[in-house]
Design goal:
With 160 residues, this protein is α/β, with parallel strands linked by helices. It has a single domain, classed as Purple Acid Phosphatase, chain A, domain 2 (4-Layer Sandwich). Helix content is 25%, strand content 32%. The chain has four helices and eleven strands. The strands form two sheets. The protein has a six-stranded mixed sheet, with helices on one face. The chain has a five-stranded mixed sheet with strand order 5-6-7-9-8, covered by helices on one side. Helix 1 runs parallel beside helix 2. The longest helix is centred in the first third of the chain and has 13 residues. The radius of gyration is 14 Å and the shape is globular.
């Protein structure tokens, strides 16, 4: 399975459209948005591919995003979501709640912890849990996303 990972669109539908097309062209089966969506128009772009998302600390209209996601048949997990990738367990959070991050890492229940918030891309392993942050699609000099190849456990960071 190929999983695209994005975060921090902050209302930039153009950045989401570019990233979705970029990841789809590279074979992504699913796109996971790790929060700071920033607006319903971003969800319109996200809905063009199989996608799920969590809220970020800058997503002030959470109920509006939830309602719009339902109209588009997008899965909104709220603040935390769980997924299964080829038998590997993944948890998705935005990453702004450092106590929650620490708890998820300490519990060692997941193969992948997918998060955003910080604008720098990250790929590190603590115990059995691989922590992956795709970086940011807005607010930095380079817009980045990640592609997880679950069968080989490979992560590629891509400049969009």
């Amino acid at each position: 399975m190929l999983v695209g990972l994005v975060s921090n669109t902050s209302g930039r539908a153009d950045s989401m459209a570019a990233a979705a097309a970029f990841l789809r062209d590279r074979g992504a089966d699913l796109i996971v948005h790790c929060g700071d969506v920033g607006g319903r128009h971003v969800l319109d772009e996200l809905a063009k591919v199989e996608s799920v998302f969590v809220w970020g600390d800058r997503d002030n209209d959470r109920m509006g995003l939830l309602r719009h996601a339902r109209l588009l048949n997008l899965v909104c997990f709220g603040v935390l979501g769980e997924l299964d990738f080829d038998g590997k367990r993944a948890v998705v959070v935005h990453g702004d709640d450092k106590k929650l991050l620490r708890r998820l890492i300490d519990e060692q229940q997941y193969d992948y912890l997918l998060c955003g918030h910080d604008v720098e891309a990250e790929d590190r392993k603590v115990g059995k849990t691989r922590i992956i942050n795709p970086g940011s699609l807005h607010g930095t000099a380079s817009r980045t996303a990640a592609l997880i190849i679950t069968t080989s456990d490979e992560v590629k960071f891509l400049t969009v």
